[in-house]
Design a protein that fits this description.
Elements: H1 2-13, H2 33-38, E1 50-63, H3 77-81, E2 88-97, E3 100-105, E4 108-125, H4 127-134, E5 142-147, E6 151-171, E7 175-197, E8 199-206, E9 209-216, E10 218-225, H5 236-239, E11 249-260, E12 266-282, E13 288-294, E14 306-307, H6 317-326, E15 339-342, E16 346-356, E17 359-368, E18 383-391, E19 395-398, E20 401-404, E21 408-411, E22 413-417, E23 420-424, H7 427-432, E24 437-448
Antiparallel strand pairs: 1-2, 1-3, 1-24, 2-4, 3-4, 4-6, 5-8, 6-7, 7-10, 7-11, 8-9, 9-14, 10-13, 11-12, 12-15, 12-16, 16-17, 17-18, 18-19, 18-20, 19-22, 20-21, 22-23, 23-24
Length: 449
């Protein structure tokens, strides 16, 4: 398991970072499909009558342990991830916007979008457990553990097709208000979740091995579906089954306001949206979702408790279940059943201000509306960003400055040349400081009339 996870993280870290996909370009005053993905009301604000999206790709990773300079150090990455006493948090997130189309007709705007999503998350994992599994090495021989947090390893991949409609609901010479809605049909691909909560126990080092016992029973959830039933640490397992069968719906709603400055321009534009109101239903033939009581006590077979080194080469959750059941720590058998996973519902608020002609500055706020600790929840992050931009028509450039609750403050840069765009939310901070974030996005679209 160790080698597979580290290879996957290195692969993604070379691309990525942040969690605000297409930052800067998605709130441009050159309004297109990316704006509509952020807020469906923007479809009635399209800059051109028609727009076609060819592709849009965004990858990002955010963590609270590994800095950019650590990638060139001699220290093993697993040591860096599990150093200190602060719980480990990492979010790996990818999004691909496929062929999509939007049009504006009178006061209406319409859009059809396709999207693929994949994520892998580490949520509030105790670093002592990580050290004990990967290195069988503890700073002291006996370590007490007590946490009510739900420690999670979770992965998901799914596709979606969205149908959007927006309309201008009020307009005069100075003001304009638009509202929109997107109905998304969801195609769950794969899912995995390992959630350990209410852990109160002791890790003891005996010889070259670390053993875990519990002082009181903990709660353990193990769920998996699709290709992630076979492996949750290989990058290919997230991408080879992004689109499953139609099993879920979701909704985005939004509104925009413009203080106008001429027929098609504005001094100020503000928007608010709630995205991803819905859930995925996993009904694959290899679905399993079981909540166990985990009670690890010394036995004649295992007088020191559970040997954590047994998990060193594990690469799927079935193996985890098999080890725990074989050693008598789980009495219930895995439960084959369909289950539901909630999407990362988010509230977004933004404002775009014209400073002088062709120079704008955008403020953006994203607030998650669910708790990442829930076993049936896809995670998200809280973000606040400020983006100054210069828009010369055919060419546009911008500098996103953001802060999120996983990796802190980051500074990036991006540009648009015609329909092609390229950017990063963190390249400046990665090159000039010890950033704990890396990201990359690019795409191409064209507009007509």
């Amino acid at each position: 398991m160790k080698n597979r996870i580290i290879v996957a993280l290195l692969f993604l870290f070379s691309f990525c970072h942040s969690q605000e996909h297409f930052s800067g370009i998605s709130t441009s005053n050159r309004v297109g499909i990316l704006n509509g993905v952020t807020n469906p009301a923007e479809f009635s604000n399209l800059s051109k009558k028609f727009e076609v999206n060819i592709y849009g790709i965004s990858f990002d990773v955010a963590n609270n342990k590994i800095g950019f300079s650590d990638l060139t150090s001699d220290t093993n990455l697993e040591e860096l991830i599990f150093r200190g006493s602060e719980p480990v948090n990492m979010r790996i997130n990818g999004q691909i916007i496929g062929p999509s189309f939007a049009m504006k007709f009178m006061k209406w705007g319409f859009g059809i979008t396709t999207k693929a999503n994949f994520k892998f998350d580490i949520v509030d994992v105790n670093p002592t457990i990580g050290n004990a599994i990967f290195d069988n090495n503890l700073p002291i021989n006996i370590t007490q553990l007590s946490t009510a947090d739900n420690q999670r390893l979770a992965g998901v991949s799914y596709g979606e097709v969205g149908f959007s409609a927006a309309r201008t609901v009020f307009e005069n010479d100075k003001h304009r208000i638009d509202a929109g809605i997107t109905l998304k049909f969801l195609f769950p691909g794969s899912y995995s979740n390992f959630g350990l909560s209410e852990l109160d126990g002791t890790i003891t080092q005996v010889g070259g091995s670390a053993f875990l016992t519990t002082n009181s029973p903990a709660t353990l959830n193990i769920a998996y579906s699709g290709s992630l039933a076979d492996s949750f640490s290989n990058f290919d397992d997230y991408t080879k089954s992004v689109f499953g069968g139609l099993n879920g719906v979701a909704t985005d709603i939004g509104i925009t306001y413009q203080w106008k400055d001429g027929k098609s321009k504005y001094k100020i534009k503000g928007g608010a949206s709630i995205r991803n109101i819905g859930s995925l239903n996993f009904k694959d033939s290899n679905n399993y979702n079981t909540s166990y009581t985990l009670d690890i006590q010394p036995t004649p077979q295992n007088p020191s408790g559970l040997d954590l080194g047994l998990f060193d080469n594990v690469n799927n959750l079935r193996n985890v279940e098999d080890i725990l059941i074989a050693n008598g720590y789980l009495t219930q058998e895995p439960n084959q059943t369909s289950f539901r996973v909630n999407l990362p519902t988010m509230f977004a608020l933004y404002g775009d201000f014209k400073i002088v002609p062709k120079v704008y500055i955008t403020g953006y706020l994203q607030q998650k509306m669910n708790q990442d600790s829930a076993d049936d929840q896809i995670t998200s992050v809280n973000i606040i960003s400020v983006t100054p931009r210069i828009n010369l028509g055919f060419f546009e450039s911008y500098i996103p400055i953001s802060n999120n609750d996983i990796s802190g403050t980051n500074i990036g840069i991006g540009f648009r040349l015609g329909g092609f765009y390229l950017g990063s939310n963190s390249i400046f901070s990665a090159l000039t400081s010890d950033s704990k974030q890396a990201d990359f996005y690019t795409g191409f679209r064209f507009a007509l009339l």
